[in-house]
Write a structure and sequence with these properties.
globular, Cytochrome Bc1 Complex, Chain D, domain 2, binds heme C, two-stranded antiparallel ribbon, 19 helices, mainly alpha, 3 domains, 9 strands
């Protein structure tokens, strides 16, 4: 009697388990395929290809590595160039960049060109899948001649033996294999869509903005777990862990620029429309100032053609006071005393020296973090070959009482046609207490 019952039970288990396992295998297969298939995960360790060593390739590799800003991310503060160890603070703890010098033990000296190509295309190295602090969504667009030139240049750099600190990441994020799950959910290899109708310089601009220049690492809105949302890649965002707003980049928000002024801004850090500060000043100083004029013009052309991201249904903002209702003789007197010498009584600045505050989207942004931060702590435009002694903006945090600071901020947000919401004391305090680097 008992044997048939056991058999029947076995059949039931099979009848449930088999479809379930099949389903799990099918979903897993789809997800593995989605992140680039097994091929993306199998790193070619022992390739034969050697890097080029001719001067022309090395010079090209150096130029490309500068635009990709490899050295900035792979150098710790005050450390040897490319030896790694720069800390990246994330919601899940601190992550360190790796040693990219040709040291065989701690760097990439034992790598073949095949392995380097694989890492740049797929974001998976011999150590496993990389964290998304490595710009894999962007570097996947690089063409192989450029990747080869970058590798050639890296392998020509001084060899530095340097172990980088171990990552300090919390929970599951500390487990590198969990990045396989992350990839399955969020990494979708993509090539840039065909755009044959567009001219060569537009194409070049797109390659530099979306690929090597990885602008969306800061200017893009993030999805869950540090993922990047392709449609929102220029939608503007607070930079994680830094308390700066990287503004929206598209043809509407950049409509006050001309192609040549925007190219000038990217190469020199200043233009009649704005001058760079904070993280953007660093990007220009370390990377973009080296752009050739043709490449800067190409990037500007592409940026000024970017279609605005689809508007997300946002929570309706609570009705807020308009700054222009708070403008009066007191705020005007403060402005005349503290700001007008440089930014002009009419808020229009002085061309190429002091940026305009009138009609400046950074001044009227819904998220006023940059405005408050610059006014409290001052700012310095980048030092570039074309602008070796930039003017800087003095800090006001310790010079004025809070009520005057707020009156001033509202004055610039509500004068000369600017029409933004009023700044409140808690907004100012939140920025005052930001941990600054
Ligand atoms: C925005 C910062 C950033 C930029 C820019 C950047 N990297 Fe990295 N890179 C990282 C971080 C962080 C890691 C470590 C990721 C990890 O541990 O998963 C990394 C890892 C790597 C690795 C894997 C090394 C290994 O041993 O696994 C390679 C190769 C690499 N980067 C090459 C480059 C090159 C070449 C460039 C320039 C074209 C570049 N990176 C630009 C942040 C950056
Ligand atoms: C490390 C983060 C970071 C990266 C990478 C970055 N930006 Fe920015 N960018 C910012 C921040 C923050 C600002 C706001 C401060 C300022 O205006 O200087 C900014 C401002 C700008 C502005 C000024 C917009 C305006 O209307 O005033 C332009 C244009 C710009 N970025 C273009 C780029 C391009 C093109 C790239 C890629 C090559 C890029 N950025 C990469 C952080 C970044
Ligand atoms: C001594 C001259 C000077 C004075 C005084 C001055 N600024 Fe500035 N300001 C500058 C310079 C130079 C920059 C550009 C800094 C940079 O690019 O890093 C700047 C930048 C700014 C920006 C950023 C503009 C942008 O494009 O995002 C704001 C906002 C600003 N100033 C507000 C003020 C306010 C408000 C006051 C008065 C409380 C003031 N400034 C007083 C010189 C000055």
């Amino acid at each position: 009697m008992s044997a048939p019952r056991r058999v029947r039970r076995a059949w039931w288990v099979l009848a449930i388990a088999f479809p379930l396992l099949t389903l799990i295998a099918a979903v897993g297969g789809v997800l593995i395929a989605g992140q680039g298939g097994f091929q993306a995960l199998s790193v070619p360790h022992h390739g034969e290809l050697k890097p080029a060593t001719d001067a022309a390739t090395l010079a090209r590799g150096e130029y490309l590595a500068r635009l990709g800003n490899c050295t900035t991310c792979h150098t710790r503060r005050g450390g040897a160039p490319l030896a790694g160890g720069r800390a990246f603070v994330t919601e899940w703890g601190t992550l360190y960049s790796t040693n990219l010098t040709p040291d065989a033990d701690t760097g990439i000296g034992a790598w073949s060109l095949d392995e380097f190509r694989h890492v740049m295309a797929h974001g998976v190295s011999r150590n496993g899948p990389l964290y998304p602090a490595f710009p894999m969504q962007h570097f996947q667009h690089l063409d192989s001649a450029d990747v080869d030139a970058i590798f050639a240049w890296l392998m020509s750099r001084p060899t530095i033996a340097s172990d980088v600190p171990a990552n300090r990441l919390e929970g599951i994020a500390g487990w590198r294999s969990a990045m396989l799950g992350w990839r399955m959910l969020f990494h979708r290899p993509q090539s840039l869509p065909d755009a044959d109708a567009m001219g060569a310089s537009w194409q070049r601009g797109r390659y530099l903005v979306e690929g090597l220049g990885h602008c969306a690492m800061c200017h893009g809105e993030r999805g869950p777990w540090g993922s990047q949302e392709p449609l929102l890649r220029h939608a503007g965002s607070r930079i994680p862990g830094q308390g700066w707003l990287a503004p929206t980049l598209d043809r509407d928000t950049l409509s006050r620029w001309t192609v040549s002024d925007l190219a000038r801004y990217l190469r020199t850090g200043t233009a009649p429309q704005a001058s760079a500060y904070g993280p953007m000043a660093e990007v220009i100083q370390s990377s973009l100032q080296h752009l050739t004029e043709a490449d800067a013009l190409a990037m500007a052309e592409y940026l000024l053609d970017l279609r605005p991201a689809p508007r997300l249904a946002r929570r309706a903002a609570p009705p807020a006071e308009r700054a222009r209702n708070l403008v009066g003789s007191h705020s005007l007197a403060l402005y005349e005393t503290h700001c007008a010498d440089c930014h002009g009584g009419d808020g229009r600045g002085r061309e190429g020296v002091f940026p305009p505050l009138a009609g400046n989207p950074q001044v009227t942004a819904a998220d006023p973090v940059n405005l408050i931060r610059v006014t409290l702590f001052g700012a310095a435009a980048p030092t570039t070959a074309a602008n070796p002694a930039p003017h800087s903006m003095p800090p006001f945090a310790d010079r004025l009482p809070e009520a005057d600071l707020i009156a001033l901020l509202n004055h610039v947000r509500g004068s000369w046609g600017n029409d933004a919401t009023a700044i409140t004391p808690p907004q100012l305090q939140a920025i005052r207490t930001l941990p600054l680097e």
